[in-house]
Specification:
Order of helices and strands of chain A: HHHHHHHHHHHHHHHHHHHHH
Largest sheet of chain B: 5 strands, mixed
Radius of gyration of chain B: 30 Å
Distance between the termini of chain B: 67 Å
Number of helices of chain A: 21
Number of strands of chain A: 0
Number of strands of chain B: 5
Order of helices and strands of chain B: HHHHEHEEHEE
Shape of chain A: globular
Oligomer: heterodimer
Structural class of chain B: alpha/beta
Strand order of the largest sheet of chain B: 2-1-3-5-4
Number of helices of chain B: 6
Largest sheet of chain A: none
Helix content of chain B: 40-55%
């Protein structure tokens, strides 16, 4: 009972922290309806923000504890509440959209069924899959007990557990273990499930904001219930949760690009910074979204370009500052990974390994377009990007999602290209996992571009503060 | 090349669906191309996504059936494809003897999987790279660990023999 209660209390704390950020940014208002609509996003952003604070504290050598977790939640919530009081961002303008009651009822029934089913799995599923115990839970258990990163962990005995991998998820898991009173084997996958529910809630809230239920409900149902996501979500690897943070960040970034206001850059920055601390691939994918935001900023009209570029610079600085401590820690402790970034800048190395490009591209493409795993999300996203690029009003938005998806895919390809591993082994053990970053970016693109093109209004909206 | 063909055909398929929608559903006022492309793309995602969700439901049920009956205390010993050949009973035998803060060294005879599994199951006790730094030697498939690791009998605090060539030795450390 203590474990269940601990998880519920921590989940409420994370939700509160995220809600305060959304309130401070002006995304959410203090009304029952607004709080309910943005509750999924609140949890997603709260996990990201509190996870970031705890991760930075761990890297700085602060010993992890439940009071520290409570302090992190309190600080984030206070910062959000202070912003809400001091900055006073105007409320989001109301939208008049068809109610499409039947679609909403259908969505509620189907999501309700999956909520029950997913929670049923999360309450019985232990850590059973290879990397979950060999990499992630080994780190979580060490952080849970030692409070900090033990020096021994950087040495050869743990080489197979990849000490270079970012530690946001083990830090959060260790925090869960503390409030649960210890590692409870049958509840460990519950936080990842809650995070995914938070992402689904984010998609629904943004979808409802952008377009009618007759459009966003089929997109949400057709993408969020994808087999590959549900299969791997309960493996307890870092891929799906990191991709959920990235997908949420890309979606909020898209709202800024579409002229809905700089308020959306706040949750975007928090989610991208957390994704960059969740996995090495999360770092490159977050970099891809930041690059796409710059491209969109440069495509802004002459009167808005300077401000847009400055906003993108601010976001990039935030994400960079959140990433730097872990990179410095790795350097200070002489920890090296399998993939050396310097090889990506070495034309000789790239040329020597050019034979790895075609098989990697083919495998990644085949995986993300496998209809039994992913449906046709990527094809839908690509066609919508194409149509958005062809229309002047949606060109920036199309370019943003096009650059995001293209770069996320390219950086994955690049990682396999420069890695000094056996390619077949590398692809066989990871291609089906890392493509989640592309898949979640495609979910964000499909939802947003479909709404913008259908409503025939994307950049027309006047930017609010 | 195959992926290019697949890509082009899929995009054409959405375009074709959009054309059908535009031609057949126009009711007085022809809808714009971007709207029908959106509707076609969304229809594609929904029509292919929901059967996919059926498979998802299947995997949800499989997981509940597989793991629901397993008692919590037994779950950590049942990693799929894991365990590195380590008998769960060995962990139950050895772990109570590792005191808080004790470190261990796993002999290199144990393969990578075995070493990873022992690192995991003995966590939060830490694995060391060198025997000289560790409190415990976990010997694995070594009939004579004392000779192999040059451990003097005078330095042995505890010897926990699990099998003829598997066990743990606690070694006295100065200080």
């Amino acid at each position: 009972m203590r474990a269940e209660l601990g998880i519920v209390v921590l989940a409420l704390g994370l939700w509160l922290a995220g809600a305060a950020i959304l309130l401070g940014a002006g995304v959410m208002q203090l009304s029952r309806r607004s709080v309910l609509v943005w509750s999924g996003a609140s949890y997603l952003v709260g996990v990201a923000a509190v996870g970031l604070v705890l991760t930075l504290a761990t890297i700085a050598g602060v010993r992890g504890s439940t009071p520290l977790t409570a302090l992190a939640i309190g600080l984030v919530a206070l910062a959000g509440a202070a912003c809400a009081r001091l900055v006073r961002v105007p409320a989001l303008p109301p939208r008049e959209l068809p109610r499409d009651r039947g679609f909403r009822i259908f969505a509620a029934v189907v999501f309700g069924l999956f909520l029950v089913g997913g929670t049923g799995v999360a309450l019985v599923m232990p850590i059973a899959y290879h990397d979950a115990w060999a990499i992630w839970d080994t780190k979580s258990l060490l952080l849970y007990d030692h409070g900090t990163i033990p020096a021994e962990f950087t040495r050869g005995a743990y080489a197979f557990s990849h000490p270079d991998y970012p530690i946001l998820w083990p830090v959060l898991e260790a925090a869960h273990y503390r409030v649960m009173g210890g590692p409870e084997p049958k509840l460990v996958t519950l936080p990842h499930w809650l995070l995914y529910v938070g992402f689904a809630g984010t998609v629904a809230a943004v979808g409802a904001r952008l377009t009618r239920p007759a459009l966003w409900v089929p997109i949400a149902l057709g993408t969020l219930l994808t087999y590959s996501i549900f299969d791997q979500l309960f493996w307890h690897y870092a891929d799906v949760p990191t991709a959920a943070l990235l997908g949420g960040g890309a979606l909020f970034g898209g709202l800024w690009v579409a002229g809905h206001g700089t308020r959306w850059l706040v949750p975007c920055a928090v989610l991208l910074a957390a994704a960059a601390n969740g996995k090495n691939e999360g770092l490159t994918a977050a970099g891809a979204v930041v690059a796409a935001l710059f491209v969109a900023a440069l495509l802004a009209g002459p009167g808005l370009r300077r401000r847009a570029v400055l906003s993108a610079v601010g976001l990039a600085v935030f994400v960079g500052a959140a990433v730097l401590p872990w990179r410095l820690w790795l350097s200070a402790n002489d920890v090296e990974g399998d993939i050396k970034a310097s090889r990506a800048l070495d034309p000789g190395a790239l040329s020597d390994a050019s034979g790895r490009v075609e098989p990697t591209a083919t495998r990644l493409w085949d995986t993300i377009t496998n209809p039994r795993q992913w449906g046709y999300i990527v094809f839908a996203a690509l066609v919508l990007i194409g149509v958005a690029l062809a229309r002047r009003a949606t060109r920036r938005l199309g370019a943003y999602y096009g650059v995001t998806g293209g770069l996320v895919f390219f950086f994955l390809l690049l990682a396999y290209w420069v890695a000094e591993t056996d390619l077949n082994w590398h692809l066989n053990t990871s291609a089906d996992r890392v493509v989640h970053l592309v898949g979640f970016a495609a979910i964000a693109a499909t939802l947003h571009l479909a709404a913008a093109l259908y409503e025939e209004r994307a950049d027309e909206e006047v930017a609010d503060p | 090349m195959t992926f290019l063909i697949t890509l082009v055909l899929s995009l054409l398929g959405i375009g074709l669906a959009a054309a059908v929608l535009r031609a057949t559903l126009a009711d007085g006022r022809t809808p714009s191309w971007n709207r029908v492309v959106v509707v076609a793309a969304v229809a594609l995602v929904a029509a292919t996504g929901l059967p996919n969700a059926g498979a998802t439901l299947g995997t949800v049920q499989d997981r509940i059936d597989r793991w629901g009956p397993v008692p919590p205390e037994e779950t950590r010993g049942q990693a799929l494809g894991g365990g590195g050949g380590v008998d769960p009973a060995f962990i139950d035998f050895a772990k109570p003897h590792l005191l808080r803060g004790d470190t261990f060294f796993v002999s290199r005879n144990a393969g990578a999987e075995t070493q990873m599994w022992l690192n995991y199951r003995f966590a939060p006790n830490l694995a060391e790279d060198r025997l000289e730094d560790a409190d415990w030697l976990v010997y694995w498939r070594e009939p004579d660990p004392f000779k192999t690791h040059r451990v003097s009998l005078d330095d042995v605090v505890t010897h926990l023999k699990w099998g003829p060539d598997v066990g743990l030795i606690r070694i006295r450390r100065e200080g």
